[in-house]
Amino acid sequence: MDQKGVGSLKLPSEFIAKMERLLQNEASRFFSTYDEGKVNGLRFNPLKTDRETFLTLVPFALSPVPFCPTGFYYDGGEQPGKHPYHAAGLYYIQEPSAMFVAEVLAPNPGETVLDLCAAPGGKTTQLAAMMKNQGLIVANEIHPKRVKALSENIERFGITNALVTNETPEKLAKYFPGFFDKILVDAPCSGEGMFRKDEEAVRFWSQAHVEQCASKQRHILDCAYSMLKEGGVLVYSTCTFSPEENEQMIEAFLQTYDDLELLSIEKVHGIQPGRREWTNTGLEEIERTARLWPHCLKGEGHFVAKMKKTGSAPAWNGSYVKPNISKQMLRTYRQFEQEALQIELEKPMYAFQHHLFALPDHCPSFNGLKVVRAGLHVGEAKKQRFEPNHALALALKPQDVRCSLDLSSGSSECFKYLRGETIETGEDRGWLLVTVDGYPLGWGKEVKGIVKNFYPKGLRVHA
Ligand SMILES: C[S@@+](CC[C@H](N)C(=O)[O-])C[C@H]1O[C@@H](n2cnc3c(N)ncnc32)[C@H](O)[C@@H]1O
């Protein structure tokens, strides 16, 4: 494809010409952002810590993202993904403009929420944290490989109210008509806002791809619409600039469903309205949507639209999942609980073969769906004993367990643990919650002075 140099990047000539035509005298400001480095952000995890504590704890220089109370910019020279606090789920590394989307959906504790295109979980982790682990969030990802990363991020963040599925939007639409209070469609898109971060997105770009994405997005939105409750709220977002995937997508969607009201998103901190002149009908209300432009704020770029279903919806008539755990399995678990924990898990328990899960509130029956995680993975019943899962460790607080081993974040012992090595302690206390500066990292089992390492093999750091 014909390309032209812009800043340090080579961009498709057709994309440059299109943006020049769309942005006119704003285009030079837009293109000048390609001379600047990408913007880096992370979001702290309010399920595990609070803002003040977080700021005194982390060793990176941070400055606040103005449109996300949990978001911070960090300097490109830092490597927060390699710090033990990342393994402990104290933050999620996320492009800053992406942080605005969950703020717009703003779910409340106890609601029923769907994140339809969820991997790798940036928005799911933010939504679930806003829900304070109460209610239900169905986090779905269509691609089997990407759903694994989603599930791991949910685990790392200590999220206990997520049903993680690996389904198509149409399959979910059949299961959940009229079921959700709030739905996020963070759509697969042509990724024009990712060009500074991701060379693949540049290579993949063509006008034909923009149009393919638009037709996929429309299908996903139709599925999402059918899953909304009466009064339910749907947020649609992309990380691309093309009007076909943004203003024109929402314009056509609103033309199809006359019971959808477009809600206004507050335009503060450099956030701009959607462009009326880029719709096909000059739709004035499109200015209620939001555009985050790299030349107007510190972020790579996003589009966000928020809609409410004002008409009636068929009442969901599915059933809720029933606890299925055997008495023997429950006994094995309770014995572990008495030995190792100071709390009792009170959620309904569900067994997938030997694996035990504590279900989210009001969990719908998921028979026939590809479920990757149902709430909190508590552990596995083995012969006469119970082995706690890593997810349980990351969802606990040190005061929830009888014994813990606290390691300092700068210590060699901490990195030994993350590499999967044993640690000598000289004691014999059984299951230990291993923590870094008081935040859970995983399990260890202390026998005859040695802590056997239960940090999952797939997560271990290589020396
Ligand atoms: C923009 S990404 C989601 C990012 C995610 N929400 C986050 O914040 O981390 C879009 C996701 O949609 C998925 N996807 C691709 N095709 C899809 C389809 N036809 N239906 C639903 N999801 C699809 C992609 O695999 C990708 O994970």
TrEMBL record:
Keywords: Cytoplasm, Methyltransferase, RNA-binding, S-adenosyl-L-methionine, Transferase
Positions of the catalytic residues: C239 (nucleophile)
Endpoints of the signal sequence: none
Residues that hold S-adenosyl-L-methionine according to the record: C117, A118, A119, P120, G121, G122, K123, E141, D186
Any GO BP annotation: RNA processing
SAM-dependent MTase RsmB/NOP-type domain mapped to chain residues: 20-310
One GO molecular-function entry: S-adenosylmethionine-dependent methyltransferase activity
Key word Plastid present: no
Entry similarity comment: Belongs to the class I-like SAM-binding methyltransferase superfamily. RsmB/NOP family.
NCBIfam families: nop2p
Protein name stated in the entry: SAM-dependent methyltransferase
